[in-house]
Amino acid sequence: MENEVPDVTNIVFAAWPFLIVMIILAWSLPRRFAMMPLLITTCYMSMEQQFVVGGLHFQLYRILMIVGVFRVWVRSEQKGVAYGGLDKLFMFWVLATVIVGTATQPSFDRFLNRCGEVYNAVGTYFLMRCWIRSFDDVIAVVRAAAFMIAPLALSMIIEKSTGRNIFSVFGGVPEITQIRDGKLRCQGPFRHPILAGTYFATLFPLFIGLWFQPGRNKRAAVIGGVSAIAATAASASSGALLTLIGTGIGGAMWPLRGRMSMIRRSVLVLFLLLAVFMQAPVWYLFDRMSAVTGGSGWYRSYLIDQAVSHWNEWWLVGSTYTAHWAPGGEVMPGNPGNMDIVNHYVSEGLGGGILKLGLFVAIIVAGFKIVGRFTGLKAGYPFPRAIFAWSIGVCLMGHCISFMSVTYFDQIIVMWYLLLGILSMMACTSTKELLASREVLQSDVAVESALMKE
């Protein structure tokens, strides 16, 4: 699915004032909002807008990362950041990406490619850890994101009605909207409709959590939630739709949070029973589901089947050749050595073997454990904070669902590392800070209740 970016500098006239404004904002905004210019850029600027220096691609959001790191260094905003287990797992994953990923096909070009992936990961994660220090910071960013995505959702609705993508002026996306099975598949500035839909679907649970926060957050929650649903629908992506439905179900399971252990065991038993009684492997459930949701469920099932069947080719250091896996010899245009890898878990394995995939899964497991710390029945955190932590966990679950139907690249990968940074911040929040947060929150709730009575 991943498309190649041309090896040429390409900055249209309209992108220059946009970049200048984003740089100014990245330097001047208060710490908790310093991440917003980076998010706005990933949300509104296609990957075609870039500078190419010595063969290295610097899309606009990568330039903003440099500005952000320089700001952190000048203002010493990295001081006071506590680091924990998730940070260590993340750095081990980074090392595996570079070292093992390069061993997949030892060459300087491969090394640069792996460094490019690490650049995006470490840049976003580091800035997130320096700028977002508390739940209040996260809530402020989510509230701002609700207003940020509204114009983009509106543009996708317009694209749905006109069949033309206004972001084509920046290059990298087609002017005429794709059509599949008679449906327009809107993509905005993203390089594929499923990436656009996934971007919005994984944000949706955070707006649900925002609704339950004290203060003037409900309007932002409604704007963000409606925008996320509308844009996901406009993408006409079955994978994104399943993610949206999955996050809705995950949010509705809040009353059952004390029984999650039993639910996990039940799901495991269910899959084991399906594996016993289904004639095909259990991952062909995607094929069965596509009969209802539409999309290429068979292809996704087939890809997993091929990855399992050819595990000996990639388990040690990964693999850069999968053309012989492709059904009917259908390989990617411009990349005859590979079939289209539309599964992020498979992509992790191919990019660094079982070590990289294992660390990736370990990061996800650690993330869910962190959320459990805040949402357990015995945790004793105020309802608004606990349910917002739950929404972060549902967001994580949404990404886990999306990983089954798309390989993350370009803009959307920033949202994944942003989420990991939030989870790490939660893990490193000290008991003293949590107690202080409770007192402030209880005060806010009391004030809001008093105002409502008046």
**Number of separate helices:** 17
Query: Helicity, in percent?
Result: 55-70%
Radius of gyration: 22 Å
The biggest beta sheet is recorded as: 2 strands, antiparallel
Describe this structure in words.
This protein is mostly helical and 454 residues long. It has one domain (15-270, 332-443). The chain has helices at 15-28, 36-44, 60-75, 85-103, 108-131, 135-162, 193-211, 218-235, 238-252, 260-277, 285-293, 297-309, 311-314, 344-375, 383-402, 411-428, 431-453, and strands at residues 50-53, 56-59, 178-180, 183-185. The strands form two sheets. The protein has a two-stranded antiparallel ribbon. A hairpin with a 2-residue loop joins strand 3 (178-180) and strand 4. Helix 1 runs parallel beside helix 3, helix 4 packs antiparallel against helix 14 and helix 14 (344-375) runs antiparallel to helix 15. It is globular and about 55 Å long. The model has no long low-confidence stretch (mean pLDDT 89).
How do the helices and strands line up, and which of them pair or pack?
Layout: H1 15-28, H2 36-44, E1 50-53, E2 56-59, H3 60-75, H4 85-103, H5 108-131, H6 135-162, E3 178-180, E4 183-185, H7 193-211, H8 218-235, H9 238-252, H10 260-277, H11 285-293, H12 297-309, H13 311-314, H14 344-375, H15 383-402, H16 411-428, H17 431-453
Antiparallel strand pairs: 1-2, 3-4
Helix pairs in contact: 1-2, 1-3, 2-3, 2-6, 3-5, 4-5, 4-14, 5-16, 6-7, 6-8, 7-8, 7-9, 7-15, 9-15, 11-12, 14-15, 14-16
